[in-house]
Structure formats: C-alpha cells, structure tokens
Amino acid sequence: MTRRPQLIVNADDFGHSTAVNAGIADARVQGIVTSTSLMVLRPEAEHAAELARADVDLSVGLHVELGEWMYREGEWKALFETDADGIDAVVTSQLEVFRSMMGRGPTHLDSHQHAHLREPARSLLAQLGRELRVPVRHVDPRVRYCGEFYGQTDTGEPRPKAITVDALVRVIESLSEGTTELCCHPGKGEIPASSYGPERERELEALCHPRVRAALADAGIELISFREVA
Prior knowledge:
two-stranded antiparallel sheet; 8 helices; alpha/beta; single chain; TIM Barrel; globular; 7-stranded parallel β-sheet
C-alpha cells in the first residue's frame, strides 16, 4: 500500500520586511503556504510574529542567521559571517528571541542561505532539532527538500521560468510518496535590502494561482505543515 504524497510549502524570510511579511500572509490565506520560517533579527520580525500568533494553524520555524553572502566577481563573498566558535551562542540567542516573540518553540529549524549545511553548524542544528523534537532542513530523513521553485541560479543569475505557474505545477506533478518540503520566498511590493526582489511577487502570483490548487487535487497530494511531522 502506497502512502499519499504529502507536501509542506514553507515560506522563508518571515520578518525580513513588511513587503515579505505581506507576501507570506497572502500566500498563506490565498495560496498554498502551510509553514514559514522566522528571521528573528530582522526589523519586521515582531510584526511577523504578531501575524503568526493570529494564525494558530500556521507552523512557524526558526530561520537561523549565521551570515549573508552575495555572488560578486566570480565568487561568493561574505557581507557578514559568524565565526565557527560563536555559532552555538548565536543559535541559542536566536532561539530565545524566537520563544520570546512567539510564546513557544519553533516547529522546525532551517537557516538563511542554507548556512547550516556546513560544519559545525550542521551538527549543532541537528542536535538542537533532536532536543526540540522538530525537523531540521536537509537533515531529517522524514522530509525531502525541494528548492526547484526559485528564480535565480546558484550564482544569482535570473531564472524567471522556474517560478511560473507552469513550473510550480510541474514540481507538484513530479512529487513521489512521502513528505516533501517545497521552499518558497513570496513577497509583495518593493523588497528592501535583498538580492532576491522582483522574483518574490512572481512567486506569490504562482502560489496563489487556481491551477496550482487544481494540480494538488489531481495528483492526490495532501498539504500539511511541519507541525504534523514534529
């Protein structure tokens, strides 16, 4: 007996700005977003937490920030980066801020620009996930990660065809049994201080399109959140 495919649609960067918060809120109400990841250090984090507290069914995880990198002159260069020796303290601090803002712990863990794929951050977040009994992106074998719905290449070049309605429908139709996390980055309006700007509104449009809901129904895919996995 095969198990019905399950899909978590997780919106990263909650708290980044009012424009990102608005896009995630719309993608939640009008689209297929079931979970989000909160950046607790960003200017609009408290606004995001307020929105999340009003939506009791929204799964909210911690989007750990360990640095920011931009692709320049043929390589990724750090705008800021946490030293390896300081990662433990930074993660602990951000978790405490999350708990203070949300009044509870996160339903899942991930990181900005996938910084926790490198050691020692990977092992640290994996251990924290075990302690909190929540999934960690790229680490928990129960949840496959899908990053195909993204409008830039690995070097920051535009990739507009990857965030159309057609592209999202193709991703949905390719899902196999088990649980998959589809990562997205919706936004609404001008996005300040982000190398991923205009793409966010295109993502929002696709996430809210009726054809996407129809594709999920036709493929027999169940929308869930990280809360069900945790």
